[in-house]
Specification:
globular, Spore Coat Polysaccharide Biosynthesis Protein SpsA, Chain A, 8 strands, single chain, 11 helices, 45% helix, 2 domains, alpha/beta
Length: 282
């Protein structure tokens, strides 16, 4: 399977600072580049056009990242989709792994390990995001903000698998701009939750937005709600326990949360560690 079987799909807007680095990191695996531009006024369009990308305009008057991403997916010709944000870059040693996974042809979405580096952070924080998946019409993104493709892959009979493929995320926004974005996203997430209260992923992201704003009481309340709505999920109970221990200082409730997480997942190392720390500080 050659590189032309992989389409790099991106959504960009005024990304000239990091865009060239991102595109260069994917040059060895992406035979096609599809870029959805949501209103750039800098040199972003020229940067991608110089690399032979197909560039389409997208009306972003109403913020909807899933719709923007899906517009790009609909135009991709590769058998596989590689998704990157402009401030992300693949590490060079990951290129063979991407080629290998594409050549296997399995019906699966692959999580990449993303290392998020912020200007005000002492060290990178790691999360995992689906960035490689088969190009199928039923595999589409969901969510106006914090959009994900995970659920549609599972609904389409695919699997979600973790890899060691790494992304470097140069996340260094202006603090004031970041705060405004947090507040804007909170409003959008609350609209989505009102429209579909069963979509718990929106609550996950809402808690994260409140956490980033330092509004820990609100984040803790959402974590509590998620633990009740996911009674069999040990990670939800662990997260609620962490909020009760570290932010709301409710040690008794934290102990109950960690104990429940451990009951649901015997040997759960994180829950055991927190319970041990609680016992040692009695």
């Amino acid at each position: 399977m050659n590189a032309e079987s992989i389409s790099l799909c991106m959504v960009v807007r005024n990304e000239e600072r990091t865009l060239a680095r991102c595109l260069e990191s994917a040059a060895a695996v992406a035979g096609e580049i599809v870029v959805v531009d949501t209103g750039s006024s800098d040199s972003s369009r020229q940067i991608v056009a110089d690399r032979g990308a197909l560039v389409i305009d997208f009306d972003f008057t109403r913020i909807d990242f899933a719709a923007a991403r899906n517009a790009g997916l609909a135009l991709a010709n590769g058998r596989w989709i590689l998704v990157l944000d402009a401030d992300e870059a693949l590490l060079p040693d990951c290129v063979p792994a991407i080629r290998y996974l594409a050549a296997r042809g399995e019906n699966a979405g692959y999580y990449f390990e993303r290392q998020n580096r912020g200007a005000d952070s002492a060290g990178a924080k790691t999360d995992h995001v689906v960035r490689l998946f088969p190009n199928r019409p039923e595999y589409r993104y969901h969510g106006r903000v914090h959009e994900t493709v995970d659920a549609s892959i599972l609904a389409g009979g695919g699997r979600l698998l973790r890899t060691k493929i790494r992304l470097d995320h140069d996340f260094a926004p202006d603090p004031e701009a970041r705060q405004k974005r947090n507040l804007r996203y909170i409003g959008i997430l609350e609209e989505e939750i009102a429209a579909d209260p069963t979509d718990l992923s929106r609550l996950d992201f809402l808690a994260a937005e409140y956490h980033q704003l330092g509004m820990f009481d609100k984040a803790a309340g959402i974590a509590e709600k998620l633990a009740m709505l996911r009674p069999l999920d040990p990670e939800s109970h662990l997260r609620a326990g962490m909020y009760h221990l570290l932010y709301t200082r409710e040690r008794a409730r934290a102990r109950e949360d960690f104990a429940e997480a451990l009951r649901l997942r015997p040997g759960y190392a994180e829950a055991e560690s927190f319970l041990k720390s609680l016992s040692e500080t009695l």
